[in-house]
Write a structure and sequence with these properties.
Layout (H helix, E strand, L loop, with lengths): L12 H10 L6 H11 L3 H5 L6 E2 L4 E4 L8 E4 L2 H8 L15
Antiparallel strand pairs: 1-2, 2-3
Length: 100
């Protein structure tokens, strides 16, 4: 079984991380990292997210399949809702996996 993660960003790390994300040639990368920080969602969960499972009006997203094989709902902070609202609806996180 995998060891649970308990690492959190320390003071100043988020600013450095977001600055580096802004310098990425992948235009999705910053948004992806910001949503990950806001929700705690894993990379695979974010990359598999579809607009059908995003409920901005109710402030949550549904993940039909997670790492442990079960579905779950993830609450969205105001910032996560704002970021997701700014993204085009006709696209996935296209090309973002190349940033990982």
């Amino acid at each position: 079984m995998n060891k649970p993660r308990d690492r959190r960003l320390e003071q100043g790390e988020e600013e450095k991380l977001l600055k580096a994300c802004k310098e990425s040639s992948n235009h999705w990368f910053l948004s992806l990292v910001q949503v990950a920080i806001e929700t705690g969602m894993r990379r695979g969960e974010l990359l598999s997210l579809t607009w059908d499972n995003v409920h901005l009006d109710k402030s949550w997203v549904h993940l039909p399949m997670t790492k442990n094989g079960e579905s779950r709902d993830v609450p969205l902070s105001a910032k996560a809702r704002e970021i997701l609202s700014s993204l085009p609806r006709d696209s996935k996180w296209e090309g973002v996996s190349h940033a990982f």
